[in-house]
UniProtKB/TrEMBL annotation:
Sequence ranges assigned to domain Metallo-beta-lactamase in this UniProt record: 15-229
Keywords for this protein: Hydrolase
Single GO term (MF): RNA endonuclease activity
Domain Beta-Casp: 248-367
Domain of life per record: Bacteria
Record's protein name: Metallo-beta-lactamase family protein
Keyword Hydrolase: yes
Source organism of this protein record: Microbacterium thalassium
Length: 452
């Protein structure tokens, strides 16, 4: 029997990572993420899953971000009865992220129900916190480099960098080798260890989030210091939307180094994300995945004031500057950061710093392309604060770094499929691989099935 791979997500978009492997009489799903960004993409989350969840034998997860895990509660709710396999770090972080996602979905549905602002008479969440807890209970954890036999499909987790627990997947099925990058980290990341070099494989599925660009070679610390010093010296507020898991830690490291060097004013730093606060404890338990010393860990977590309650968060909106607020979400799609944006985004003396990829259709992408009116809580909100985009803080490998990582392989892969990128980025990387390396590379179609 020939193994088959079907691309059910992360095609023509950076989100919704879902790949189905059919081999050895088994169905194994690699990643099970939410579609995010444009409404047309988000509506895919409400469509029936492409295959009956009851027929899937196991799920294997690359890392904990919602675009790779966020549909798991819905999959379990719809009848998936198998195990979810991941690294220890991914399971622990998913135990924070998935229940929080379910809670926010419940809150959003309740808000629209109260306001009558939905086209549905009784809007319902995609899943609830209880559904998410049920999915978390299905996780089975594995160490890096410990092979897992899923009844004929053999999976090995190898380090990917990016965030805590993130793994590349080496999969053997029906005598063929598949390799999934998940989200590939950076060799020069200040916090995470670099991704493991690429080993020989028959088929490579590689992310292409930054496939059409290279990160700035400027020191992100210099950019951060310049904005923070100017704004905070004059009493302003610096608002930094950040993914609660991964980006928040990288920012704290940068800010603690700048503070220790005397390059930013001694103003309060608030980490306003309960998930980020809890994730900090998990990061501290897994220092072996990071490249910094223990004293730097202590210094980066001594820097901020942790904001835990809703009342504490509301008080920040009354406090005024100077101060720095780090708050989720990183693409301004929800959470406490929106209330801070309502409070401080209209003042030209303040600044907003974007620090990662902004998917199309998100408020972060709207600001990134220069628009200065955001739709929030049913209102059009003018943004007069400075907006800065420091892409060099991204935890994703860029075009150059992906190509350099590929060239660590002892031999070219039989085929390369580029996913997890918007169309221009994926196709630009395809050209670089095909023309520069001479490898067989292409961008798959949604729902396309290939034989391995």
């Amino acid at each position: 029997m020939t193994a088959r791979l079907t691309f059910h997500g992360a095609v023509d978009t950076v989100t919704g990572s879902r790949y189905l492997i059919e081999a050895a009489g088994r169905r194994v799903l690699v990643d099970c993420g939410l579609f995010q960004g444009f409404k047309a993409l988000r509506l895919r989350n409400r469509e029936p899953f492409p295959v009956d969840p009851r027929t899937i034998d196991a799920v294997v997860i690359t890392h904990a971000h919602l675009d790779h895990t966020g549909y798991l509660p819905a999959l379990v709710k719809q009848g998936f009865a198998g195990e979810i396999h991941s690294t220890v770090g991914t399971a622990e972080l998913s135990g924070l992220i998935l229940p929080d996602s379910g809670y926010l979905m419940e809150e959003e549905a309740a808000y629209h129900r109260r306001r009558g602002s939905s086209k549905h008479a009784d809007p319902q969440p995609l899943y609830t916190r209880d559904d998410a807890e049920a999915a978390v209970g299905r996780f089975v954890t594995h160490g890096f480099d410990d092979p897992v036999d899923l009844d004929g499909v053999r999976v090995t987790f190898v380090p990917a960098g990016h965030i805590l627990g993130a793994a590349q997947l080496q999969i053997q099925a029906d005598g063929r080798r598949l390799h999934f990058t998940g989200d590939l980290g950076r060799a020069d990341d200040a916090l995470m260890r670099p991704p493991r070099p690429l080993e020989a494989t028959d088929l490579l599925v590689c992310e292409s989030t930054y496939g059409d660009r290279d990160h700035s070679t400027d020191d992100p610390g210099d950019e951060l210091a310049a904005v923070i010093h100017r704004i905070c010296t004059h009493g302003g507020v610096v608002l930094i939307p950040a993914f609660a898991v991964g980006r928040a830690e990288s920012l704290l490291l940068q800010l603690s180094r700048l503070r220790a060097a005397g390059r930013i004013p001694d103003v309060p730093v608030f980490l306003n994300s309960p998930m980020a606060v809890n994730a900090a404890e998990i990061y501290e338990r897994h220092r072996e995945e990071h490249r910094i010393a223990d004293d730097e860990f202590r210094r980066m977590y001594d820097l901020p004031t942790f904001v835990r309650t809703v009342d504490e968060s509301k008080l920040l909106n009354l406090r005024g500057g100077p101060m720095i607020i780090i708050s989720a979400s990183g693409m301004l799609e929800g959470g406490r950061v929106l209330h801070h944006l309502m409070a401080y985004g209209g003042d030209r003396h303040n600044a907003i710093i974007l620090t990662g990829f902004q998917a199309g259709g998100t408020r972060g992408a709207t600001l990134q392309r220069g628009e200065r009116v955001l739709r929030m809580f049913g209102e059009n909100v003018p943004i007069r604060a400075e907006v800065h985009d420091i892409g060099s803080l991204s935890a994703h490998a860029d075009r150059r770094q992906i190509l350099e990582w590929m060239q660590t392989a002892p031999e070219p892969p039989g085929r390369v499929f580029l996913t997890h990128g918007e169309p221009a980025a994926a196709d630009a990387l395809r050209q670089q691989i095909a023309w520069g390396l001479g490898w067989d590379a292409r961008v798959p179609r949604l729902g396309e099935t290939v034989e391995v």
